[in-house]
Amino acid sequence: MPNDGKTPDSQDKAPPAELQSTVIGRKVEMESIGTIYGHFLQRSTPFGFHMRDDHEIEFHALPYKPESSADNPGSLLLEKPWRLVLEMLQGEKRLVLGLDLYGDVILGRGESSLGQIVVNLEPYDGVKLGVSRVHAMLRPTKGHLYLIDQGSTNGTTVNGATVQNGLLNAVKNEDVVALGDLVLMVYVLASPGKS
Fold it and tell me: What are the residue boundaries of the structural domains of the chain, listed by start?
């Protein structure tokens, strides 16, 4: 039966391999990743590090806070986030960024794009300090928060130990992460298993 334009012929077939991506041991349609990016664009507000002072830290949901199962295609996002504060020193200033991580984010330089939500470190001397465009990934799971080097030019360390390209490295409260020469202190305020 010819396609009448209302329903695709391949509606019941799996998408071709080039439209699939492996995420933590399972295949996920690229459409799900596109949906997550679309929700991120609709819900995100500009964010960045700010001075640590007496003001409350604003926490940014990344990629976004799923409101329902329809907001969470392929169950790629956590129901409860990892609440983090990233802190850096810039000269005499202590700068902080509050994050509620529901899914993977990239620590690097540049704008977010389909499949890559980026915490942009370029405004904080990222180029000068050796941060790659796609330097490392923060991957939250229900039980652990992982940092994964993405083949960065200048390397990644956690508490001085080298992070190998592509390998999971657990990150804990008060760990010191270096992306090239840019140093971040990670404070874990809450995880999905704890409130």
Answer: 17-190
Report the run of H or E that residue 16 belongs to, with start and end: none
Across the strands, what pairs with 84?
99, 188
Whether residue 63 is preceded by a cis peptide bond, meaning omega within 30 degrees of 0, is yes
Does residue 84 or residue 18 have the better pLDDT? 84
Residue ranges in 44-158 assigned as alpha helix (H): none
Strands 93-101 and 59-62: parallel
**What are the tens digits of pLDDT across the range 167-190?**
999 999 999 999 999 999 999 999
For residue 40, what is the DSSP state? H
Q: Report pTM.
A: 0.73
Query: How far apart (Å, rounded) are the C-alpha atoms in residues 42 and 165?
Result: 32
Q: Quote the percentage of the chain above a pLDDT of 90.
A: 52
Amino acid at 39: H
pLDDT in tens, 103-123: 999 999 999 888 789 999 999
The one-letter amino acid code at 27 reads K
* Fold of the domain spanning 17-190: Tumour Suppressor Smad4 (2.60.200)
Q: Which of 193, 142, 188 is nearest to 24 (CA)?
A: 142
